[in-house]
Amino acid sequence: MFNNRAEKLFVWLFFPLALLMPLLLDQNTFYVNKLATILILSIFVMSLDYLVGRCGLVTLGHALFYGMGGYLFVMLAPEYEAVNFWLYTFYVLAIASVIALVVGVIVLRTSGIYMIMITLALAQMCFYFFSDSTEFGGNDGLFIFVKPETDVFGLSLFDLDNPTHFYYLCLLSLFNCLLFFKLLMRSKFGRIMDAVQENPERTTALGYNVLHFRLASYVIASALGAYAGYLFALQYGFVNPSMLSWQTSGTALVMSILGGLGTLYGAILGTLVYEGLHYGFEHLTENWLLPMGSLIILMVLAFRHGLAGYLESLVEKRK
Amino acid sequence: MSSIVLKPADLAPPATPCPVTDVVLQTEGLCKYWGGLKALDDLSLQFHDRRLHGIVGPNGAGKSTLLNLLCGSYAPTRGKILHNGEAIDAIRPHEFSRRGIGRGFQKTNIYPSATCLENCSIAAQRRVGGSFNIFRSRHSDRLLTEMAAQALEKVGLSHRRDAIASRISYGEQRQLEIATVLATAPSVLLLDEPMAGMGHEESQLIIQLLKSLKQDYCIVLVEHDMDAVFALSDQLTVLVDGQHLVTDSVERVRDDARVKHAYLGQGDEVI
Amino acid sequence: MNNLLEVRSLHTLYGESHVLHGVSFYIKQGQAVSLMGRNGMGKTTTLKSILGVLTPRSGQVRFQDQDLDGLPTWQRMRRDIAYVPEGRGMFHNLTVKEHLQMAARPNRRREVLWDYDRVLATFPRLQERLTNLGTQLSGGEQQMLAIGRALMTNPDLLILDEATEGLAPLIRKEIWEVIRTIKASGVSTLIVDKNIQVLEKICDHHIVLVKGRVMFEGDSQQLLAQRSEVESHLGV
Amino acid sequence: AEPVKVGIMLPFSGVYAALGDAGRNGLKLALTQNAAQLHGRDIEYLELDTEARPERAPELASSLLDKDKADFIIGPVHSGVAMGMSKVLRNKDAIMIIPNAGAAAATGPLCAPNVFRTSFSSWQPSWPMGKVALDAGYKKVVTMSWNYGMGKESLEAFEESFTAGGGEIVKQILVPFPKTEFQPYITDIAATAPDAVFVFFAGGGAVKFVKDYNALGLSDKIPLLGAGFLTEGTLEAQGDAAEGILTTLHYADNLDNAANHKFRQDYASSFGKPADIYAVQGYDAGLLIAQALNTLGGDISNRTALIAAMQASTIDSPRGKFTFSKAHNPVQDIYLRKVVNGENQVLSIAAAALEDPARGCKL
Amino acid sequence: MDITLFLFQLMNGVQYGLLLFLIASGLTLVFGVMGILNLAHGSMYMVGAYLAWYFVNTTGSFGVAAVISAIIALLLGILIERTLIIRLYRRNHLDQVLLTIGLIFVFNALQSLLWGNDPLGVAVPAWLDGAIPLTEMIEYPVYRLFVSGLCILIGIGMYLTINRTRLGMLIRAGESNRDMVECLGVDINRLYTLVFAAGVALAAIAGIVSAPMVSVVPGMGEHVLISCFVVVVIGGMGSIKGAFVGALMVGIVDTFSSIMLPQVSSMMIYILMAVVLLIRPRGLFAS
Ligand SMILES: Nc1ncnc2c1ncn2[C@@H]1O[C@H](COP(=O)(O)OP(=O)(O)OP(=O)(O)O)[C@@H](O)[C@H]1O
Ligand SMILES: Nc1ncnc2c1ncn2[C@@H]1O[C@H](COP(=O)(O)OP(=O)(O)OP(=O)(O)O)[C@@H](O)[C@H]1O
Ligand SMILES: [Mg+2]
Ligand SMILES: [Mg+2]
Known about the structure:
Strand order of the largest sheet of chain B: 6-7-8-3-9-10
Pfam family, one (chain A): BPD_transp_2
Transmembrane segments (chain A): 35-52, 57-76, 88-108, 113-130, 165-184, 215-233, 253-277, 289-311
Subcellular location (chain A): Cell inner membrane
Largest interface: D-E, 45 and 44 residues
Shape of chain B: globular
Membrane topology (chain A): Multi-pass membrane protein
Distance between the termini of chain B: 21 Å
Structural class of chain C: alpha/beta
Oligomer: heteropentamer
Bound molecules: adenosine-5'-triphosphate, magnesium ion
Main location (chain A): membrane
Largest sheet of chain C: 6 strands, mixed
C-alpha cells in the first residue's frame, strides 16, 4: 500500500492523531473548524497534486472546480428547505464531472505552460461570471441558509451544524480520498497514467489514446476538487467568487509543491505546514508576509522534493 | 544527389526471392512535403507478411519519414496507406498500434524512470486490456508480467529486468526499445535504426532476433549497418532524396550502380 | 612529443554505482586515439569525466600540461576541446545556420581553420537545410551538424562519441576523411566508435575499456597483433 | 477587571492595506484618548490581517469569536469580507462594528442587533450628490464605477436622487474590478459630452482615474463629481489633477469643530501623517466602544444592555455629532466638498442628518 | 462609433498594448526565452515604480531617478539569480513557482515596511509635461507618446538581440540544452545571470516609466502579472515578435471590448487567449 516508510509513518501518525484532535482541543469551535478547513483544503490540494504530480497536467485553474462545488450547491439547493447531503454530494460530483469533461476536452488540446494559461483563462472567466453577476451575489458573495441533513434511511450520521461532526465528515472524506487515489495509482489505469506522464509520445505509439487517459484523470481530480469546494461552502454557509480566483489555485499549487509533488500524502503535509505557518505568523506580526515568504524560499532551497522528500530522507537516514 | 528517378511503372516486377506471400502493408503514391521540401515523393511499396523489408538510403532520404507515416506519427501530404487492404491513413495515431503496427524509434524512446520490466508491462497491457480499470492492481496480472518478461528475454535483457531504464547503457536502452514494441504483440514491426549505437555482440543478438521474428512478422527495417541489412533483408528498397530508387533483392541492389553511386560508395570504408 | 591530454586513474560513480575503476591513458599532440568497448563499459562516462560534465570521485585530468580538475566544463572547453556528444545534443529552437554561428570561436592561438563556409563545404547536405531547426533534421543530418558545430570552435582536441552512428556508408567515409584532414592539420582526436576496422587504420593509439577498466592500450600494430584478444573484449 | 477584548479584522496587506492601517490607527487613538471612560478596564487588541480575501473571513471571524472570545470585533474594509464575517457573527455574543464597508446588505436584509456601522451605507455619501448636480444645472450625467457591490450601490443612490429631480443618466459605465485602464472609457465620455460625470472610485483606482481624466484634458471641460472616496487619502498622489473636483462625503478635512481639530492634531502627531476618512471611521468605532463602556460603568457582560447603550449613543465625531438609526447605521450630515490647493474643503452641508433607508432590515 | 472615435480608441488600444509589451518584455526574456517561471516579475515592476517615486522625491529629477532605479533593479536581479534561481535550474520547473511566490511575499512585505501602504503619485517630468490637442474635447499627453516610443525602441532592440546576435543564439540554445552550451565553451551561468538581471531591469523600467501615469500602490505588481503572462503565451513562448503582436492584440481587444461589449469585457482577454490557444495550441509565433 505504501510507497515508502515515510509515507507509512505519516499516515499512521496523522490519521489517528486527527481522530483524537477534537477531544484534545476540547471541542473548541474555532480550532475544530480551523482543522476542518485544513482537511477540506487538503482534499482540494490532493486532487491538484494528483493532476500535477501524477498526470503531468499543470493547471492554474483548479479553483474553477473548487468554487464550482460551492456555487453548484447554491444553484441546486432550494433556498430554505433542508436537503440531503449525500444526494447533493452526488449531484455536485456528477455535474462537476460533466463540466470537467467539457473543460477537459478544451484544455487538454494544449500542454505545458499553454495548458497552465488556458486553465487559468477558463477559471478567470468563471470568476468574472460570478463576480459580475447579480443573481449570485456578485463580488460580495452569497449566504447559504440551509445545512443539509446526512440521513441515510432515517439514520443521521453527522449533524453538520455541529463543528465536531463536520470535522469528522471532512476527516472521513480526506481518508477516502487518499485511499481512492492510492488505489487508482496502483491500478492498471494508474500504470498507464504514469506512462502518459513520463512519455506521452511513446504511450501513443504503444496504442493508447493519451487524451482519454488524461481526460479521465482530469475529470476525477476536478470532481474531487469540486467536492472540497462543496464542503467548504457548507462549513460556514458562505460562497464568494474569490474561491474561484487564480490566487486560490496558486495557493493550492504552492501547498502541493511544498508538500512534495505527486506524493499525495505530501498534499496533506503541505497544506498543514502552509496553513500552520500562515496561522502562526499572522498571529505574530502583521508583516507576516516577510517571515512566511522567507521561510518558503528557504524550504524550496533546502528540500529538493518538498516536505515529503525531506521526511523520506530523514526516515531513510534513520534506517 | 542522384538524377535517376524511376517511376514504379518503369520497374520490372521484382524477382521474387521466395514464394509470394500476403501483402500486409502497402503504400500508394505516398507523399510527405515539408514546405517546399519533398521528404518523400510518390512512393508505392508493398510489405509482405513474414518478410523483412529493408529500407536504406542516404541521410535525409526520407526513411524515418516513411516509418513515421506508416505508424501514423505524421499525416501524409498525399497518398494512401493500406493495412490488410484497408486505408488507414486517416485513423488516429494510437490506432495504428491497435492494428498491430508496432514502432521502434530512431531516438531512444522509453520510460526512463520505470524499470525495464515495467516498460514492457506498459506495452503488454495494451494487449491484455483493462487499462481503464481503476480497481485492479497493476501487479496482480500474471499473464501480463509474463508477456513483459518474455519480451525482455527475446532481446536478451532478462538480467536487467528490475533495472531502472535510465540507468542502463545506451545500447541496452536500444534493446529495451525493441522489447517494448514486441510486448505489444504486433504483426508489423517498424524499426528505425535499431542497431545504431549497439556493440557487435548486441547487434548480432538483434540480428538473430530479427531473423527469428521475421518467421512470424512483417518487419520494415531502416538501418545503416549494411552487414545487418544485407544479412536480414528479403527485399531491399533504396530511397534517395525522397525518391524511390529501386526495390529488389539484396544481391541485385548491392550490385546496382546507381545505389553504389548514391549510397554505398565503392569498396572499403576507409580508402 | 608532449602529452596533450593525460587521464590518471579516474574513478567515477553514478550515485552508488561505481562505473570507472581507475581509467588512465594519454593522448599525444596530433594523435588520433580510439576508445573502444562494448555497451555500458564506461566510454561515455570517461569522456564526460574528462569534460567535467561528471565529477569523478578521484583521479586527475591534465590538458596541455595544466590540471583541469575542479574547473567548470566551459573553462575546459575554452582550452580548445570540442565534443560531439552521444545523442547529438541538438538545440530545438535554433536553426542549422545558428547552430554553426553560435559555436564559432577561434582557438587560443587565434587561428581560424574551420569557419562557416568550410563546414558547409564539408557537409553540403547541411547547406540545403540552413533554415531548418536542429531537431527537424534527419538523424544523419543532425550528426553532421553536431560535428560541424564542434569544428566551428577550432579545437586542439576533438572528442567524438559515436559520431558515425546513423550515418550512411558514403557519409561515414566522408567523416573519416574529415577526421584524417583534421588530424593532418595537427588536431588531436579521441574517438569512440565500434568500427574496429576503420579505427585501426585511422587512429594511432587504441584503448579498450572493459567494465570501467583499461584492458588494452597500444598502437595499431599492437592492436593487430592482439586482434583476437581485443575482439573478444569487444564482443565481435 | 478583565481587559475588554477588541478584535480587529482589517486588511494590512494588499490593495486595501492603507485603509486598514488608517482604521486601526483611528480606533486605537480613540481608545487611548478616552481611557478615562473605560472605568479602569484595559483594552486587549487582537489583530488579524484579512488580506481582503472574503473566503477567509468566516474563519478569521470565528477565530476572534470562538477562540479569543472577543467582546468587540472591528472590521472590515471590503464588502465581501463583511458578508463572510457577518455570516459568523450575526446574532452572536460579540459586537461587530463595521468601520468602513458600505455594503447595503449588512445593515439592510442582513442587519442584526449586534452589528453596528460607524462608517456609512453606500447610499449615504452618493445620494445627496444628485441634488447638488441638479442645483448646478446639470441635466445629463454619465456615471461610472467599478463593477462591484459598493460601486453599483453608489451609482444607484446618485441616480435615485438625480433622476427624481428630473436629471438624466445618459450612460452608466461599469468597469471590471480592479481594472485601472480607464482611457477608453474616458474617451467614450468625451464623445458622449455630458454635462458632468459622477464616479465612484477609491484608493489607487481613484488616483489613476483622476490622473487619466486630467491627462486627456477633460478636467476643464466636463466637471467631475464623485462620492468623497475619490479624493480621500489620495490627494497627494493625484497632485494638481484633482483640483476642482466636487465630492460629497460625511467628512472633510477642514471641518470646523473642536473634535475635528483635536483629532487631526493628535492623529498627525501620533502617526506622522494626516488623517483621512478611514481614520475617522475607525476613531468613531473607538468612541462608540468607549462611550458604551462609560454608560455601563465598565460592565459589558449584559449584551442586551450593551446594545441598547450603543444604539442610544451620540458620537461626538470629527465629522460632527451623529446618532444611530434602528438598523445601526450612522445618521449623519453629508458635506459637499471641493478640492482646493490639495485639500478637501467644505462648501456646504449637502444633506443634514441623513438616514439610510435600510431597505429590508426588520429591526 | 464614428471614425474619429474609432481612431481614438484604436490609439488607446495601441498605447495600452505597447505599455503591456514593455511590462511583459522582461517576462518574455526570462520566461519566454530562458524558460524560468518568474512569478515575481510583477513585484519587480512594483519595485521599479516605488524606487522611481522614492528617488524622484529625493533627487527631484525624474531622469536621475530613472537611471538610479534601473541600476538598482539590475543589481537586484543579479543578486536574486546568483543566490536563489541558480539553485533551481536542474530541478522541477514548478519549484520556481514556489520560490518566486515566496519572493512576492517578501517584496510585498518590504514595500509595506519601507514605503507604507498609501497610494503614491509621481509627477510627469516637466520636459514631457505637455499635451497635443486632438479635438476640442480630447488632448493627448506627450508623456504617453514618449512611453509608446520607448516601448517600440525596446521591442526592436530585444528582437534584434535575441534573433540576430550570437548572444541571442546562446541564450536560446541555453534554454534548449544548458549542458551542451557549456560544452561549447560558454559560461552559461554568467550568461543566465545577465539575462535574468536584464529581465528584472526591464520590468523595473516598465515600473519606472509607468509611475507618472499610474498610481503607485501596494499590489500593483500582481494586477499586471497575469496580463503579462497572457501576452507572452498568446505570442508563443520565446518569440519577441509574438509578445509584441500579443500585447497589441490584448491592448486593442481590451479597449474595444470595454466600450462595445461591457458585459464580457472583464473576460475578454481570457477569451482571446483561449481562442488563440484553441486555434494554435502553442501560441501565434512559437518556434
Ligand atoms: N519536422 C520537419 N520539418 C522540416 N523538415 C523535416 C522535418 N522532419 C524531417 N525533415 C526533413 O525531411 C528529410 C527527410 O528526413 P528523414 O528523417 O526521413 O530522413 P532519413 O532518411 O531518416 O535520414 P537518416 O538516415 O539521416 O535518419 C530531411 O531532409 C529532413 O531534414
Ligand atoms: N545516469 C546514469 N545513472 C546511473 N548509471 C548510469 C548512468 N549513465 C550510465 N550509467 C551506467 O554506467 C555504465 C557506463 O555507461 P556509459 O554510458 O559510460 O557506457 P558506454 O560505454 O558509453 O556505453 P554505450 O556504448 O552503450 O554508449 C553503464 O553500465 C550504465 O548502466
Ligand atoms: Mg532517420
Ligand atoms: Mg556511450
